[in-house]
């Protein structure tokens, strides 16, 4: 991160205020805010009762998430920093619409726990909590998730499907036993989807043999080639230590080590990423106002060019007016590309799901006893979740590609525009769209292996997650994990009476299984199809807004330069000298700002 970035933002805002550019000032301020608190999403996942919620509480240093010996967490819970504590429950109402309700922290149990909300009959999709906490202050957002036990694969698959959009993952498993094969497999897949994966061995105060378990786990992971940081912690000791303000006990809880790991491996890289984006914003804004000021300065020094220059500015303005209109080529391009993307993603997704269905139908033909169903349901869940992930990842990849293409087109159109001072415009319009390829090294490296490059591109984790979180738990997690179809052989075939005729029984069994598969696949296609449609529409709006805003900034720069030049023409000689000094001073500031923001000398 360029060291003087904070200072660059402050100075830039000052220059912009002097110029009365509130539009750019807002963008610069946003860049500054992003710098202070980039949002970093860390998901805490694991089998039932391993101590996930306790670990989140340990990190927060307070009892926020409900903890219980019995089933506790039943909904995804996002905890972010907020000076005023607040809890928002997002759920579906009776008519299926998503509603957000404010509740108190004391009432939380009634919403996110199995006890207070059995079988999730309140249809909670997600809960968002704001609390004041030191670990969150840097922009960390912790996500507590329901246990993925029992028929684990479904939930695991659903969790994996939103991992490309998280910055970090902590898998929690307690020291009572070694990691199970599914846990190891989950970790292996997670490392392909998420830039930072940690393993936390919990409850070490409870199991004196935890070191042995730790070593066994290390060996299991090594065998599968999973190379991730491991930390052993005790949430019980942590809370005790904080209550007693006992430093040694806090060390013994090993939470300081976990917090350090999160800071070094998740928060710092995310911060660097955010800083790069902010720096790019700062440089592009500085370059834009510099163009206007240089033009004004040139006219102050040589008023004879005024007429020609004003004509050029006017013409550029008219062209930009057209570029901002709905008929502009880039705007049509956005529409076309987004439509193509939507078709392609839907086509692939449907194709993929059809293949899954065929595979399952074949397996059903071989099925002889209800017990085989559990394994098949797991396969079904995993394969479907894979396709869901791929579909969303493809949309995100598409977003990056379209954005680049539009930026390229606009750059060409811009270069064809008349310039007040010569044959081609004097500044690099591409700078305006510069922040495209900012996939951080580490994220890029891992994501590459699964072809997910670009997914995390210009979007921040929280934005993505907000988007995904809005419907993924509904469309994928709920569907994939708790669909009645997949609740196991007992639930599905419980009604199947032992028939005298074994042949008839097997036929009936297969018939039921086929129906279940079809029903599930139809539901997923419907829900996910809708979600993709929604996402794509949003994407189109975002792209249009972004480019329209940039064009508006450019247009305003030209318009104001023309206006200022006309005002300057009426000045006395003294005033001209003063204005020259002012513009020179502003130009010097801008050079300094660009340098502080990591740009070379202007
Ligand atoms: N002694 C001890 N007990 C712990 C520790 N962490 C969790 N527990 C206990 O383990 C039980 C489960 O803890 P939770 O934090 O609710 O576990 P969870 O993984 O969130 O559970 P679900 O959300 O239901 O899957 C509770 O009784 C906790 O008190 C620990 O570090 N030490
Ligand atoms: Mg829990």
Could you characterize what this model shows?
This protein has 602 residues and is of the alpha/beta class. It folds into two domains: 37-253, P-loop containing nucleotide triphosphate hydrolases (Rossmann fold, 3-Layer(aba) Sandwich); 302-570. It contains 18 helices and nine strands. The protein has helices at 5-19, 22-36, 52-60, 109-112, 152-162, 181-193, 210-223, 235-244, 247-253, 255-301, 306-324, 329-366, 372-415, 441-449, 461-482, 489-493, 502-569, 573-596, and strands spanning 40-46, 76-81, 86-92, 98-103, 124-131, 140-144, 168-174, 196-202, 230-232. A nine-stranded mixed sheet has the order 4-3-5-2-6-1-7-8-9, sandwiched between helices. Strand 8, helix 7 and strand 9 (230-232) form a beta-alpha-beta unit. The two termini are 19 Å apart. The model is unreliable at 422-427 and 434-487 (pLDDT under 50). Residues 52-53, 72-73, 144 line the site of magnesium ion.
List keywords for this structure.
Rossmann fold, binds guanosine-5'-triphosphate, 602 residues, binds magnesium ion, alpha/beta, 9-stranded mixed β-sheet, 9% strand
A few lines on this structure:
The protein is an alpha/beta fold and 602 residues long.
């Amino acid at each position: 991160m360029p060291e003087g970035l904070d200072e660059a933002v402050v100075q830039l805002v000052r220059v912009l205020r002097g110029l009365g550019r509130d539009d750019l000032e807002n963008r610069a301020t946003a860049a500054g805010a992003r710098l202070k608190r980039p949002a970093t999403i860390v998901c805490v996942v694991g089998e039932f009762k391993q101590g996930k919620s306790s670990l989140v509480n340990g990190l927060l240093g307070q009892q926020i998430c409900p903890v219980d010996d019995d089933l506790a967490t039943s909904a995804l819970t996002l905890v972010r920093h907020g000076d005023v504590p607040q809890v928002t429950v997002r759920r579906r109402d009776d008519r299926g619409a998503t509603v957000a309700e404010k509740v108190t922290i004391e009432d939380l149990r009634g919403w996110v726990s199995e006890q207070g909300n059995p079988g999730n009959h309140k249809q909670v999709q997600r809960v968002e909590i704001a609390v004041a906490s030191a670990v969150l202050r840097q922009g960390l957002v912790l996500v507590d998730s329901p246990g993925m036990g029992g028929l684990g694969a479904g939930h695991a698959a659903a969790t994996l499907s939103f991992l490309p959009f998280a910055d970090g993952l902590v898998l929690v498993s307690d020291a009572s036993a070694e990691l199970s094969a599914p846990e190891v497999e989950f970790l292996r897949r997670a490392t392909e989807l998420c830039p930072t994966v940690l393993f936390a061995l919990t409850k070490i105060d409870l199991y004196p043999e935890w070191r042995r378990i730790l070593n066994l786990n290390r060996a299991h992971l090594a065998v599968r080639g999973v190379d991730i940081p491991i930390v052993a912690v005790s949430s019980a000791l942590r809370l005790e230590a904080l209550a007693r303000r006992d430093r040694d006990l806090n060390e013994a809880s090993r939470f300081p080590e976990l917090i350090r790991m999160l800071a070094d491996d998740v928060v710092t890289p995310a911060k660097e990423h955010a800083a790069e984006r902010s720096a790019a914003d700062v440089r592009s804004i500085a370059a834009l106002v510099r163009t206007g000021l240089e033009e004004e300065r040139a006219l102050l020094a040589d008023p004879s060019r005024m007429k020609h220059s004003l004509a050029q500015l006017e013409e550029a303005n008219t062209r930009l007016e057209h570029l901002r209109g709905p008929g502009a080529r880039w705007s049509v391009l956005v529409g076309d590309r987004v439509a193509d993307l939507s078709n392609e993603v839907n086509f692939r997704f449907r194709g993929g799901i059809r293949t899954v269905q065929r595979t399952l139908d074949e397996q059903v033909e071989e099925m002889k006893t209800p017990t085989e169903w559990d394994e098949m349901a797991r396969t079904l869940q995993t394969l479907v979740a894979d396709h869901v992930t791929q579909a969303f990842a493809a949309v995100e990849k598409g977003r990056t590609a379209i954005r680049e293409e539009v930026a390229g087109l606009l750059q060409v159109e811009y270069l064809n525009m008349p310039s007040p001072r010569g044959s081609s415009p004097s500044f690099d319009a591409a700078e305006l769209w510069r922040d495209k390829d900012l996939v951080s090294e580490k994220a890029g490296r891992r994501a590459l292996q699964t072809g997910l490059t670009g997914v995390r591109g210009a979007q921040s984790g929280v934005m993505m997650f907000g988007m995904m979180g809005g419907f993924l738990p509904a469309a994928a997690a709920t569907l994939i994990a708790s669909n009645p179809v997949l609740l196991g052989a007992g639930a599905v075939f419980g009604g199947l009476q032992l028939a005298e005729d074994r042949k008839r029984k097997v036929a009936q069994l297969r018939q039921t299984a086929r129906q279940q598969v079809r029903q599930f696949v139809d539901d997923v296609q419907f829900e996910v199809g809708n979600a993709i449609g929604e996402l794509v529409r949003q994407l189109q709006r975002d792209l249009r807004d972004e480019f329209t805003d940039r064009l508006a900034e450019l247009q305003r720069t030209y318009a104001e330069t023309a206006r200022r030049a006309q005002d300057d023409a009426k000045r006395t000689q003294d005033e001209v000298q003063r204005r020259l000094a002012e513009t020179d001073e502003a130009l010097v500031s801008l050079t300094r700002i660009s340098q502080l923001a990591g740009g070379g000398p202007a």
